[in-house]
Amino acid sequence: YFYGGLRKHEAAYDPELSYSGLKGENLIYENGELSYISLPPTKGRKERLIPIINELKKELDAYLKIRGKISPSDYVFIYTGGNTKGQPVRGMRVYREFKRYCKEAGIPTSRTLHGMRHQAVTTWIEKGFHTAEASYMAGHSSQKVTEKYTHLTVKLLKDKMDSI
């Protein structure tokens, strides 16, 4: 979620939405390596390609080895054991696991997956992304929406002041 600024339903299955959950067809390979995630139009009504950074690529490759062969219509994230083996991981499960990991890491459990989306946009801006680039990555309908997601940080201000 964080690296790509994904919405919960873009990665996890939600039976109430016409599109939800990554499928094999959303994984784009170049020269045999996982390179992008293709996301269909959502709120911003734009399809987008999310580049996969090396750290995430390693994690996804490790997961896909455990998960096994995936066809274009298969969900990427499935349960690998128990009564629900083979079924797509649902958004509420991701939410519960996120809260559990926050607690284990000593992070306030008031944090949300959507808050991670805001943090991703802020981090992109801190790293030098232009608002248009962050807007594309987040799938926002306009740069105005992206500006609402960007939270001014002391680090961002310090970096700007240091450049004077």
Report on this structure:
The protein has 164 residues and is mainly α. The chain folds into two domains: 1-111, Intergrase catalytic core (hpI Integrase, Chain A, Orthogonal Bundle); 112-164. The protein has helices at 8-11, 54-67, 91-105, 113-126, 131-138, 143-149, 154-162; strands spanning 27-30, 33-39, 48-51. A three-stranded antiparallel β-sheet has the order 1-2-3, with no helix packed on it. The longest helix has 15 residues, at 91-105. The termini are far apart. The model has no long low-confidence stretch (mean pLDDT 86).
Structural class: mainly alpha
Question: What name does the CATH topology of the largest domain carry?
Answer: hpI Integrase, Chain A
The total of helices stands at 7
Give the helices and strands as they follow along the chain: HEEEHHHHHH
Helix content percent band? 40-55%
Unreliable spans are none
The N- to C-terminal Cα distance equals: 35 Å
- How many strands, which pairing sense, and closed or not: the largest β-sheet? 3 strands, antiparallel
Radius of gyration: 17 Å
CATH superfamily of the largest domain: Intergrase catalytic core
The fraction of residues assigned to DSSP E strands is: 5-15%
The average pLDDT is: 86
The backbone outline, from C-alpha atoms, is globular
Biggest sheet strand order reads: 1-2-3
- Structurally, the number of domains stands at 2
| Number of extended strands | 3
